[in-house]
Design brief:
The chain is an alpha/beta fold and 170 residues long. It has one domain (2-169): Rossmann fold (3-Layer(aba) Sandwich). The chain has 7 helices and 5 strands. Helix 2 (31-39) crosses helix 3 (43-69). The longest helix has 27 residues, at 43-69.
């Protein structure tokens, strides 16, 4: 079983993905971490030095490679991964896609507790404007995110919610 967690930065894809993978006894893949490992650089540096276009190309290729070489996993995708190169349609064909739909206010609160500068599309955003920037990103991406097979809308998503939704869909 392949499970792809999608959603905005800060929606909990990596945190929840680890727990879901553990409960299902599946490998966990963080697509952003795999890109950093392959490129030997943090994502913020890849964006800064090589640009978003190259980053998205690498992300697309690695998404396909990882999906084709593993039969079972839980993957936390980057927030933009579903948006480019028909990645959303590809993930829908490969396995279960789960959209973690968390409010912009909650995401802003979470991100304020982390290093905002590590998130390329939010770096440099004034704390008071962070929620607005997240809402803008959400408005651009929502139509693609909503193509996920499973949409979970909550500010406090638990791994059990994801597992129940996947079980109901299977």
């Amino acid at each position: 079983m392949k499970i792809f967690l999608i959603g905005l930065p800060g929606s909990g894809k990596s945190t929840l993905g680890k727990h879901v993978a553990e409960k299902l006894k599946l490998p966990f893949i963080d697509l952003d971490h795999e890109i950093e490992r392959q490129m030997n650089a943090p994502i913020k540096d890849i964006f800064k030095k090589q640009g978003q276009e190259l980053f998205r190309s690498i992300e697309h290729k690695l998404l396909h490679q990882l999906s084709e070489h593993a039969t079972d996993f839980v993957m936390a995708t980057g927030g933009g991964a579903p948006i480019y190169f028909d990645n959303m349609a590809y993930m829908n064909l490969q396995g279960h896609t789960v959209f973690l739909d968390v409010s912009a206010k909650e995401i802003a609160n979470r991100i304020m507790k982390t290093k905002v500068e590590d998130r390329p599309l939010l770096a440099g955003t004034h704390p008071e404007a962070l929620k607005d920037q997240i809402e803008f990103l959400r408005s651009q991406r929502l139509s693609i995110y909503k193509q996920a097979q499973i949409c979970i809308e909550s500010n406090s998503i638990a791994p059990s919610h994801i597992l129940k939704a996947i079980e109901a869909k299977s």
